[in-house]
Amino acid sequence: MGKVRVRFLGSGDAFGSGGRFQTCIHVEAESSRFLLDCGASSLVAMNRFGVDPSSIEVVFISHLHGDHFGGIPFLILDGQFSHRTKPLHIFGPPGIEKRTRGAMEILFPGSSEIQQRFTLKFIELADGQRQEHAGLAVSAYSVAHASGAPSYALRIDAAGKIIAYSGDTEWTDALMSVARRADLFICEAYFFEKRIKYHLDYRTLAHHRSELECQRIVLTHMSEEMLDRRSEVDFECAEDGKQILLQ
């Protein structure tokens, strides 16, 4: 087993609460460099924290909302202009390629039709299935979040370490399967105790803590209200730039 380094390049919600970048989690595992989600501000965050976008080999997308996948058009365009040669594989829910190319056309008309200088491949994830790629393994679990396509929580096996990620969702028992025996569970806590459809609040998560058989929980995707009440939270909270070493 090798060391796995997790870094929150973006730990914010869709609205930049707390001045945070949108969701973008960078993982280094042996020879692999990948992202968990790639929100619209991710290229800025990568440059802020000194991560070369061309070093990213794989992107795992939890669901098709702009604050989680909206950075992909910029990542692809950056690769074209920086003469990227390394292949880029993007894993996501059904429709990931169509939605990405549609976003590219809206943002940069004509860009979706350009032949990239590097290999670009989209791979659709299916609920309950495990897919392997370049020493990594990803499993997707359907969760409760409306995004115009299936929304997933993700479980990544990298260098013998398990990283679980909730994506955006209200409480669902699928999170127990995602988090089971994980070394790290990255979980959204949008509000402190206010319950809204499709999102998870801290109180609900704390209530279910004993059912989550994971070693470590880090909260992310927090609203202004949640950020204001961090002193009342028993769990670890993400910050932009925060690093975690799994070994």
Which value, in Å, is the CA radius of gyration? 17 Å
CATH topology: Metallo-beta-lactamase, Chain A
User: For the record, what is the CATH homologous superfamily label?
Assistant: Ribonuclease Z/Hydroxyacylglutathione hydrolase-like
What is the overall shape?
Answer: globular
Succession of helices and strands: EEEHEHHEHEEEEEHEHEHEE
CATH class: Alpha Beta
Share in β-strands: 25-35%
Main sheet, how many strands, which sense, barrel?
Answer: 7 strands, mixed
* Count of the separate structural domains: 1
Helix fraction by DSSP (H/I, runs of at least 4): 10-25%
Spatial order of the strands forming the largest sheet: 6-5-4-3-2-1-14
Query: Quick check: average pLDDT?
Result: 97
* Through-space gap between termini: 8 Å
As residue ranges, the low-confidence spans are none
Beta-strand segment tally = 14
* Tally of helical runs: 7
In CATH, the architecture is 4-Layer Sandwich
Please state the structural category: alpha/beta
